[in-house]
């Protein structure tokens, strides 16, 4: 058993540095540079979550400790950001929405294990159906079930959202796609010096 990592997986300062960059720049989602910055912000958080889940799977973190780490990041990232520009605030809100499913998936995976009743695709479609019925809690729960399967190694094909009306579920699946990428590149994830 390797010793527990000394440093934080993700800090409030790191999140605030991203927000500072967003405040300084003219953010336009149509602009490639802006879109990349927002995606990097999302991926950076997903990588931190993937690191925590990997540390848990490797026995470096106990269950309770893992859930505390995830809750700490969730509170930091989902807090109302102090951004005056309404367009930028809306874009950050979109990133936060995508990340909600990442946090809930990781927490469910650690607390309850992998959801076994259906495939990633079936969970996503069931979540979309729940969203269409305005049962948002159920929709999020089902999206998190899909996320536990992704953490367990099942592939998420982004074509799954092709026939789903744009809304919360498509945002959440976008976040799960970031999580899948983060889990797929452990050599990048394990680089503690990456900034």
Automatic annotation (TrEMBL):
<dbReference type="InterPro" id="IPR014518">
    <property type="entry name" value="UCP022079"/>
</dbReference>
<dbReference type="Pfam" id="PF09920">
    <property type="entry name" value="DUF2150"/>
</dbReference>
<protein>
    <submittedName>
        <fullName>DUF2150 family protein</fullName>
    </submittedName>
</protein>
